[in-house]
Amino acid sequence: MALSFFTKNKKPLLARCRDDYATKMRLKYAPYYHAMEYQKGTTVKLDGREMIMLSSNDYLGLSFHPKVIEAGRAAMLKWGTSTTGARTSNGSRAYHVELEERLAAFLGREACHVHVAGYISCLSSVASFAQKGDVILADKNIHSCLWDGIRLSMATVERFSHNSPDDLREVLGAVSADAVKMLVIEGVYSMEGHIARLPEITEIAEEHGCFSVLDDAHGFGVLGRQGRGTVDHFGLNDKVDVVCGSMSKSLASTGGFVAASREIIEYLRTNSKQTIFSAAISPSQAACAQASLDLMQSEPQHLERLWANTRKYRAMLKSLGLDTWESETPAVPIVLGSKERVYPFWKALLEKGVFTVMSIAPAVPAGKDLVRTAISAMHTDEQLEKIAEAMAYAVKKM
Ligand SMILES: Cc1ncc(COP(=O)(O)O)c(C=O)c1O
């Protein structure tokens, strides 16, 4: 039998997994990876107890809409469960093209490409176009998928202060005028709920000849006409080159999209490894997203209800003196400032039957440790009242 210290030296990666402090802490306190035993709309069951889901991204509440469910079922019956292949080779189907055309038309773009995850769409929206020697101007608070895209591109990155046109201008002032430049921002910042200051930011980007990429995972379905997103909200469709996003939020499916001019999308299809070497989205995923897209245009009540709920919820949090980081959207953080305050608050909400998610530094900037909550059009008045009671209780428990 091998001596244990030899074994250890031979398998340093196994030791890394076994000894990882963050994993040990996660397993000890078990704040993440809760597997719900049941779900019906915004009601879930966890450890045998019914809870109100207050942290999903089902903004329009379409994940249990009968038309969305039926569309997914019918697509599976017609096309099977999977394409089992990449779009480049054997995985392309008529329904992919239809969904892409519908999304492109909705967003006022020439073309669109859909992937199996928003993470892939957003990552490849950066990595496919920027390359070594280029300069990427990135908002400090962008999502992990965009940072991964930046890293893969091998471009030089310059960060600017979160949502600050002044800092962007200053940072750009130090970048060579000849450099090929890309701006990377979000439309609605997922943790903060902030809307990008798009008019000022795109004006500066244009002055400096930046190609612009905007991740609208949390703006799509929420802002703009019928939920067309942040760019539409400001009427600036011609000022942003690439809009990418997720289909796992307002579109009540899974997958992601990249929308842009035809030239840009065809370039992505030729050059993006994530697009070329990854399987196409499944029939039911595509059908559910398309049915949700239809509903966004035919049933305005979901968007109206989402905003009515959001206003009510924000007013309630304000009355309790809670810091919502000036969120302007249904993604509402409750900033508590340290993990010592976040944990009891989160536990108290759980105790009162409200499920939320903790976000602790370094996932958020130091001092901004928070409980992330998100409102859905599906939350009922009764649920909002229960949430208010739970919040009042949690405030006392801090
Ligand atoms: C801003 C942002 N971009 C991209 C993604 C990735 O989307 P998906 O979950 O569909 O992979 C997310 C999801 O959390 C997100 O918040």
Task: Describe the 3D structure.
The protein folds into two domains: 128 residues, Aspartate Aminotransferase, domain 1; 233 residues, Type I PLP-dependent aspartate aminotransferase-like (Major domain) (Aspartate Aminotransferase, domain 2), CATH 3.40.640. 44% of the residues lie in helices and 16% in strands. The protein contains 16 helices and 14 strands. The strands form three sheets. The protein has a seven-stranded mixed sheet with strand order 4-10-9-8-7-5-6, sandwiched between helices. Strand 8, helix 10 and strand 9 form a beta-alpha-beta unit. It is globular, with a radius of gyration of 22 Å. The model has no long low-confidence stretch (mean pLDDT 96). Pyridoxal-5'-phosphate (PLP) binds next to helix 6. Pyridoxal-5'-phosphate binds next to helix 6.
